[in-house]
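User: Here's a chain of 161 residues. Predict its fold as C-alpha cells.
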Amino acid sequence: MQTPTQNQDELRELYRDLILDHARSPRHFGKLESATHCAEGINPLCGDKLKMYFQIDANQEIRDAKFEGSGCAISVASASLLTETVIGLRTDNAIDYFTEFVTLLGGEPAAKETAAAKVDLGKLKALAGVREFPSRVKCATLAWHALNSAIQQHSTPVSTE
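Assistant: Prediction complete.
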C-alpha cells in the first residue's frame, strides 16, 4: 500500500510528464487563418511571446483555437492546454476557465471574473505547482490573459508586467 506522500509524488510525476509533453509537442500550434479574434501576449521577464487565435461563431462558441510564438516550457504547455480546453466552449464558459485557472495559480483575474461559476480544470491542474515559483506564474497565465483579451476584443498586446 502506498503512502500519501508516494501518491503525491506519482501525481507530480504525471503532471510533469503532461507539461513536458505539451511543451515538446504543442497541440494546435500555428496560425489560424479563419480566426475572428486574436491577441498577443508578452512576458518580458521570461521572454515569452505568444499570439493566440480563436474562431468564434455567431453563437459565441469557440470553434477553433491555435497559437504561435515562442516561450519557456511552461508558457507553451499552458497555451497548448488552453487550446485543447476552450475548443467547443462558449466564450462565457472560456472566461470561467480563465478565472478559475488564474485563481488556482494565486493570481488576480481581471474584469468580470469575480462571480464566475466553478469549473473542473481537469488537466490544467497539472500547472498548479507553478504557484510555488511566483516568477513562473506569469509564464503559465500569459496565454490565458491573451484569451481574455481576445474575447474582449482589446487591441493592445497583453503584458505580464
